[in-house]
Design goal:
The chain is an alpha/beta fold. The protein is built from 12 helices and 8 strands. Bound molecules: iron/sulfur cluster.
């Protein structure tokens, strides 16, 4: 398994000149910031399936419920070409050890959800996933996938990167063998994070682990992984994060004097109301966790979800 965090990315937003007209669509956040912390695996489905550069633009067309990939001017049907290629490469993407995928936002092949799908009946185009993106997400339903333009939104960006780091840790865990003790430890460290995304999912995961003696390890890991990444797919909002911060604060009931407790409470409310970034109450909680040597909090990934250099928690 690779030491690095590997993320698949539409090649054009990684800066490669692979678009139909031999240009790129470089995304500065990806190439100038994220690239310092992760290894990109660029992929251009149109090039890889055998279309050249320059090439005719393609579009998705809904032909009586069957979405086809059609040449813009020629009307050539390229669906089979693309499908044959995806059938070949998608199962093999497992070997790439990808922990996430960032897609170009609006292309007929790569769009996450904003690709145009034309109709044959004269109706205006509807929006949907690109041809390749849809197959990718069907094949890897738990893989964190985002569109490059959505990563401009700090909350969506932070949520995506959180999931990428959790998947990396999940892969490291399963690579050590399917040991229930290790899974319980993994769950313990992610408890607050999972709660911040999905309280119901958090409870169901706890229940699953409580019943683990009636399943075999394969079943438990399989079910846990599915439920975990489904839970994390729900956004952790400032309101949900503030609830977890308040919950974490409860661990210092006896240690904080009234002034310190009030200060922390004020910060949590200010964060919830969008006045200060999450990093401020988290820094204070980390400080108290270390100062009062609280082992449970010190190991919570909620308090340290990803490298601080990424500055993902510094926005309001
Ligand atoms: S959007 Fe996808 S298919 Fe289009 S150029 Fe970029 S990588 Fe290639």
């Amino acid at each position: 398994m690779s030491e690095n965090i590997r993320i698949g990315v539409s090649a054009c937003i990684a800066g490669e000149k692979v678009r139909w007209n031999n240009t790129d669509a470089r995304d500065a956040y990806l190439t100038d910031t994220l690239a310092k912390y992760v290894e990109f695996v660029p992929l251009c489905p149109e090039i890889a399936c055998g279309m050249g550069i320059p090439r005719e633009k393609v579009r998705q067309v809904d032909c009586n419920g069957d979405v086809r990939l059609i040449g813009y001017e020629s009307g050539d049907d390229l669906t089979e070409k693309m499908t044959n290629w995806t059938d070949r490469i998608l199962p093999g993407l497992d070997k790439e050890d990808l922990c996430g995928f960032v897609l170009e936002s609006r292309s007929p092949c790569c769009a996450l959800m904003q690709g145009k799908i034309f109709s044959t009946t004269g109706n205006p185009p509807r929006r949907g996933a690109g041809f390749f993106a849809k197959l990718l997400m069907t094949h890897y339903p738990l893989l964190p996938v985002e569109a490059s333009d959505r990563l401009q939104n700090p909350i969506l960006r932070e949520n995506f990167i959180r999931r990428v780091f959790v998947l990396k840790r999940w892969r490291e865990l399963t690579a050590k063998g399917l040991k229930i003790g290790n899974l319980v430890d993994f769950h313990t460290r992610h408890k607050m994070m999972i709660r911040s995304h999905n309280l119901r999912g958090y409870r169901e995961l706890g229940k699953l682990l409580g019943e683990c003696s009636i399943f075999n390890a394969d079943e438990i890991f399989d079910t846990y992984g599915t439920m975990l990444f489904r839970s994390l797919a729900l956004k952790a909002t400032p309101t949900k994060n503030a609830e977890i911060l308040t919950h974490a604060m409860g661990y210092f009931k006896k240690q904080l004097d009234d002034g310190d407790a009030q200060e922390l409470r004020t910060m949590i409310i200010a964060y919830k109301n969008g006045k200060i970034p999450l990093v401020i109450p988290l820094t204070l909680l980390n400080h108290y966790a270390r100062k009062h040597q609280n082992p449970y909090l010190m190991q919570q990934y909620f308090l340290n979800p990803h490298p601080s250099e990424l500055k993902l928690l510094n926005h309001v």
